């Protein structure tokens, strides 16, 4: 589940992107964005089929876990990074990571609170980061690994591959492909390994924020052939709906009217702020603070706060979390629908 506007405060580059985006294309809140026919989406090839088995979510293609829940794995006391690496060295093969491949994991972030530490490692193939491939270890204050997220990509052998397309050339190809007609608000590029279920490529991911074509464009350029094989707009746009509900054609042009069958309303709701572990300074695995497959516990219910929800949608007596500038969108499996 994901809202259309995310909190950018943890990253200055993200904050800059958001500010630049809002300043340059602020009128987007008034009109949905139609799908552009030059986008190249690889959603089907990127889809990962998984299911819950016991206390883990398993990738059905590889058989390895994407997540391990409710762990209580003791590690020797030390720095968060030392404790996480101890766990990795002992349990790497649980995730399909051979012992000689542990060196492919490079630490890139640690966050420590009273509830424990979260240590993140990014997968590399040689000097190249592998797109969206990480191993994330959550450790309690009692020095126990309690939760692990895994997106490590198997069989990536790109360390010896050399790019023949320069960063400058990749940007020019992306710029020409998008046919950018206005000054660029922000641009970036990184050389990385792109992998999905059908292909593995060394690629430049070029980011261009522009007004025409409007969007935050991510263009993937093959670093050896110059082929542009993926083009996506990562911006989320407001979608005005007469019924106040998100639909799959969210980006299609449509009439927006407050005089239809819904109206804006003010309500109240119970929310976590920011999450039950942080607000109550407890560790995951404490009684009542575990993933129960969406089952309620007294501890989780009591960790919520009552807040005012302004400008939500009222339709036929049902309140939905759809507002004039943001809406909750269920964009990945399992599809649980919208909150109402």
From TrEMBL:
UniProt-listed InterPro entries: Zinc_Metalloprotease_M4
Official protein name in the record: Uncharacterized protein
């Amino acid at each position: 589940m994901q809202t259309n506007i995310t909190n950018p405060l943890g990253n200055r580059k993200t904050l800059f992107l958001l500010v630049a985006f809002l300043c340059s294309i602020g009128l987007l809140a008034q009109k949905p964005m139609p799908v552009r026919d030059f986008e190249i989406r690889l959603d089907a090839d990127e889809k990962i089929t998984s299911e819950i088995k016991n206390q883990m979510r398993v990738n059905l293609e590889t058989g390895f876990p994407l997540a391990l829940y409710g762990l209580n794995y003791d590690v020797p006391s030390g720095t968060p990074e030392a404790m996480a690496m101890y766990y990795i060295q002992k349990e790497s093969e649980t995730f399909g990571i051979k012992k000689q491949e542990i060196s492919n994991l490079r630490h890139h972030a640690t966050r420590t609170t009273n509830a424990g530490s979260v240590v993140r490692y990014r997968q590399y193939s040689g000097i190249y980061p592998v797109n969206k491939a990480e191993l994330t270890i959550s450790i309690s204050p009692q020095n126990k690994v309690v939760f692990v997220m895994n997106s490590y990509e198997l069989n990536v052998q790109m360390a010896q591959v050399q790019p023949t397309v320069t960063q400058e050339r990749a940007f020019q190809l992306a710029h020409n492909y998008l046919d950018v007609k206005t000054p660029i608000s922000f641009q970036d590029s990184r050389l990385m390994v792109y992998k999905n279920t059908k292909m593995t490529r060394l690629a430049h991911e070029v980011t261009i924020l522009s007004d025409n074509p409007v969007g935050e464009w991510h263009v993937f350029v093959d670093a050896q052939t110059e082929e542009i094989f993926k083009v996506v707009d990562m911006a989320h746009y407001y979608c005005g709906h007469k019924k106040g509900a998100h639909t799959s054609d969210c980006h299609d042009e449509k009439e927006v009217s407050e005089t239809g069958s819904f109206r804006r309303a003010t309500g109240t709701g119970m929310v976590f702020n920011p999450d039950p572990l942080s607000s109550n300074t407890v560790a995951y695995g404490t009684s009542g603070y575990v993933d129960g497959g969406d089952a309620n516990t007294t501890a989780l219910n009591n960790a919520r706060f009552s807040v005012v929800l302004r400008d939500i949608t009222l339709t036929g007596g049902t309140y939905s979390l759809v507002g004039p500038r943001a809406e909750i969108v269920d964009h990945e499996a399992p599809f649980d629908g919208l909150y109402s």
